[in-house]
Amino acid sequence: MQATQQVSQVKRTRSYVEEVFRQIEQKPDIMDIIILNKNGNPIKTTMEKQIAIEFAGLYEILKEKVQLGLQKIDPDDELLMLRVRTKANEVLITPDGKITVMVVQNAQDRIQL
Description:
By secondary structure, the chain is α+β, with helices and mostly antiparallel strands. It has helices at 2-9, 14-25, 49-73; strands spanning 30-36, 42-45, 82-85, 89-95, 100-106. Belongs to the GAMAD family.
């Protein structure tokens, strides 16, 4: 819990958002990035605006369902990261109270047997 409090105390300035976006963008296999403000609105994205808005709305629905499930398991627990993987893609979602970072990446395994 203390680490979460420290993360949420960091000020989310425009330069902070730009730096987070830049760092993620440099990673291999990144397809899309959306950064949402605390109200759930896209403030920086690689997607077209309307698609990012729709994606953000779907995330809010998913987040509410996950939080309801977590409360039933442990009322004191909180969502730190959500990872959803399909055959082709992987979506990583990291909310922290001030911004939410959503990343869509290629889900290809790097291990070759």
